[in-house]
Write a structure and sequence with these properties.
The complex is a heterodimer of chains A (370) and B (298).
Chain A: E1 4-13, E2 16-26, E3 31-35, H1 42-50, E4 57-62, E5 65-66, E6 77-80, H2 92-102, H3 107-120, H4 136-148, E7 154-158, H5 166-183, E8 186-190, H6 194-200, E9 203-208, E10 211-216, H7 218-223, H8 228-233, E11 240-247, E12 250-253, E13 258-260, E14 274-279, E15 284-286, E16 299-311, E17 315-322, E18 325-332, E19 342-348, E20 353-356
Parallel strand pairs in A: 3-8, 3-9, 6-7, 7-8
Antiparallel strand pairs in A: 1-2, 1-4, 4-5, 9-10, 11-12, 11-14, 12-13, 14-20, 15-19, 16-17, 16-19, 17-18
Helix pairs in contact in A: 2-3, 2-4
Chain B: H1 8-34, H2 54-60, H3 63-96, H4 101-108, H5 116-126, H6 133-140, H7 154-183, H8 187-194, H9 199-227, H10 231-236, H11 248-258, H12 262-294
Helix pairs in contact in B: 2-12, 3-7, 3-9, 5-7, 7-9, 8-9, 9-12, 11-12
Classes of the chains: A alpha+beta (370), B mainly alpha (298).
The complex binds adenosine-5'-triphosphate and magnesium ion.
Adenosine-5'-triphosphate binds at residues 13, 16, 18, 36, 38-44, 82 of chain A.
Family (chain B): Belongs to the binding-protein-dependent transport system permease family.
Protein name (chain B): Carbohydrate ABC transporter membrane protein 1 (CUT1 family)
Membrane topology (chain B): Multi-pass membrane protein
Chain lengths: 370, 298
């Protein structure tokens, strides 16, 4: 049993506060992904949970018990460091077996566990090398191995796959998922990679400047972002976010271009209100090259000029201009497009988002369906 | 203008070779040669009386020489180990200091700034049985009722010398080990803490292997130093009382200059040098082993 709860957790370096009283409840065996821009406090939060960083305020509970003042070894957790933190004087084998040896396990008990982890991580042929003789990706896998040989209550991963190539990353992602299913530990996983966060996590925590912006399942944070920030952060390519003003049931952009105000926001905004309109590239597509999700009535059609295309094989990203800004559309079953070509685009307004321009909060209403 | 011309590298190195020959090689060869003669400073002609290995035979059976030899090795062993422990402790304390670390580092180096002769005089005064600070303190604190004959009793004098040596040179260890601690990456220590290590285990398995090479460098430097220990002993006890603190080099200089038996003294000196070489080679081996172990890039 290892729930992890952060209650008004604060971290200060001298007078500089970098984590501002965050609250988070992690259930037992839950897989939490922590995402956010560089410098937002993900590593700091993880290090406070690990016990490597003094907690400046608030309470941290693991398994219901306040552990603020317990040293890391009393918290029974395993951590993969962003900088690997391997022991330079030990071989890969010794690195991986070290925690077990410290825990008083006999060498003949340690060996099979190390071998198994090494096989999973494709490290078997490197077991007798030292970290200085390994590539970055190999070191990262050793760091991973050092954590997975253990049976901790909580796994803390700080960008454990950031240095692997695309293929290995996919492979390791699957291994992590299997591992989680097998060991049934609680996992807190920091990552920059959207795909990792979306595919692995039960819930995603989006952090920004030392605050938590939103906590939710991958589907929630993708489909119902609470703020402009989350909307822009989750999803790739990012959501089109354009400033506009509400006038007579229309969204009017700075240069006078217009779009109809989506039906679902009709009674949530007033005329003259300054808003930010959001539409994912998936919900903007050339006619006949995409699928709308709601009723036909919610699809708005408009001609746009193609500025640039990025063919990706199975789809093409189409850049075009509206309201004096650039919009990205996703074209399924693509055909070759010429620059300057004018195409009819569908705007699936049932999927549109609207944010208050000042506060950045969603105007969907706290429990709005969509 | 034909004829042999020396190769250019040789000509270019010639000045260095000449200087080296004059200041190092000639004296070295000369002293080695003289250790096979009956050379006495008072009879210059004796420099040409070759006597083979007689000098070496004599010192091999000379109790006094072996006593000095043993005492030197003992001093070396105790001083090096204590300096190492104290230096390590000092370095770890200074490394922990969050402010004023520069100041502490400077203060730590003070003992190295004094000439060993001055250190000798200072400790001779401190250990003086009548007016010395040590006895005075012990008596004021009521720890001892009579004056302890620090520099008169053989064992106590040895301890007094040891204290002076350690005081003046612990900083060599402290500074080198501190350099090691400061150069050490902090992440492995954090990893060890998460891996379940107690502070002692963290030190034992992670910190110590990393700073070991630095300790061995200090050991190498200091083993050479102590093996030629002379000034402090000369001032504090001059090998006395009754030769009970005689070390190799005090014995050698006495034999060479007071007794004027230069040939024998040179033979002793060569044995002493051998001792230094053995210690240095030993620590160098340890050093390179430790370096490979932490995969040092220097
Ligand atoms: N020792 C320190 N002293 C002062 N400020 C620090 C210290 N360590 C981190 N910070 C600051 O705390 C903030 C959060 O840092 P943190 O390492 O948690 O970011 P992060 O979210 O992990 O970023 P990244 O994705 O780049 O790893 C940063 O602004 C950083 O500058
Ligand atoms: Mg980080």
């Amino acid at each position: 049993m290892a729930t992890v709860s952060l209650e008004k957790l604060v971290k200060r370096y001298g007078s500089l506060e970098v984590v501002h009283g965050i609250d988070l409840e992690v259930a037992d065996r839950e897989f939490i992904a922590l995402v956010g821009p560089s410098g937002c406090g993900k590593s700091t939060t993880l290090r406070m949970i690990a016990g490597l960083e003094q907690i400046s305020g608030g309470d941290l509970r693991i398994g219901g018990k306040v552990v603020n003042d317990l040293p890391p070894r009393a918290r029974n957790l395993a951590m993969v460091f962003q900088s690997y933190a391997l022991y330079p004087h030990m071989t890969v084998r010794e690195n991986m077996g070290f925690s077990l040896k410290i825990a008083g396990m006999k060498p003949e008990e340690v060996a099979p566990r190390v071998d198994e982890a090494a096989a999973t991580l494709d490290l078997t042929h490197l077991l007798d090398r030292r970290p200085s003789q390994l590539s970055g990706g190999q070191r990262q896998r050793v760091a991973m191995g050092r954590a997975i040989v253990r049976d901790p209550d909580v796994f803390l991963f700080d960008e454990p796959l950031s240095n692997l190539d695309a293929k290995l990353r996919t492979q390791m992602r699957v291994e992590i998922k299997k591992l989680h299913a097998k060991v049934q530990s609680t996992v807190i996983y920091v990552t920059h990679d959207q795909v990792e966060a979306m595919t692995l996590a039960d819930r995603i925590v989006i952090m920004r400047d030392g605050y938590i912006e939103q906590v939710g399942t991958p589907e929630e944070v993708f489909r119902r972002p609470n703020s402009k920030f989350v909307a822009g952060f989750i999803g790739s390519p990012p959501m089109n976010l354009k400033d506009a003003e509400v006038t007579d049931g229309m969204l009017v952009f700075a240069n006078g271009d217009r779009l109809p105000l989506p039906e679902k926001f009709r009674d949530r905004v007033s005329s003259g209100q300054k808003v930010t309109f959001g539409l994912r590239p998936d919900d903007l597509y050339p006619v006949g090259h995409g699928i709308h999700s709601g009723s036909e009535a919610d699809v708005h059609k408009q001609d746009l000029r193609v500025l640039l295309t990025e063919p990706l094989g199975n789809e093409t990203l189409v850049f075009s201009e509206l309201g004096g800004a650039e919009w990205v559309a996703r074209m399924l079953n693509p055909r070759p497009l010429g620059t300057g070509e004018v195409l009819a685009f569908c705007f699936d307004l049932a999927q549109a988002h609207l944010f208050d321009r000042e506060s950045g909060r969603s105007l969907r209403g706290s429990h709005g369906k969509d | 203008m034909k004829g042999w011309r020396p190769p250019a590298p040789f000509i270019l190195l010639l000045p260095a070779i000449v200087v080296l020959a004059a200041v190092v090689i000639v004296p070295l060869v000369l002293s080695l040669y003289s250790s096979f003669t009956a050379f006495r400073l008072t009879q210059p002609a004796s420099l040409y009386t070759l006597i083979g290995f007689r000098n070496y035979q004599r010192i091999l059976t000379d109790i006094e020489f072996w006593a000095a030899f043993g005492r030197t090795v003992l001093l070396l062993t105790i001083a090096l180990n204590l300096e190492m422990l104290l230096g390590l402790g000092l370095a770890m304390l200074v490394e922990k200091a969050t402010s004023g670390q520069r100041l502490l580092r400077t203060i730590m180096m003070f003992p190295m700034m004094f000439s060993p002769i001055l250190v000798g005089f200072q400790f001779k005064f401190m250990f003086n049985d009548n007016i010395g600070l040590v006895n005075n303190t012990l008596q004021s604190l009521g720890l001892s009722s009579q004056a302890i004959p620090w520099l008169i009793d053989g064992t106590l004098a040895f301890i007094a010398i040891l204290v002076a040596e350690i005081w003046s040179s612990t900083s060599v260890f402290a500074i080198l080990i501190l350099a090691g601690l400061l150069a050490m990456p902090k992440e492995p220590i954090e990893a060890a803490r998460v891996d379940g290590c107690t502070p002692w285990q963290t030190f034992r398995y992670v910190t110590w292997p990393f700073i070991m090479p630095f300790a061995y460098i200090a050991m190498t430097i200091r083993s050479l130093d102590v093996a030629r220990a002379y000034d402090i002993v000369k001032i504090m006890t001059d090998g006395g009382p009754a030769k009970r603190t005689e070390l190799l080099w005090t014995l050698i200089s006495r034999t060479a200059y007071a007794d004027a038996r230069m040939g024998v003294a040179n033979a002793m000196a060569y044995v002493a040098i051998l001792l230094s070489i053995v210690f240095t080679a030993y620590f160098f081996r340890k050093l390179s082993a430790a370096r490979t172990q932490i995969a040092a890039e220097w």
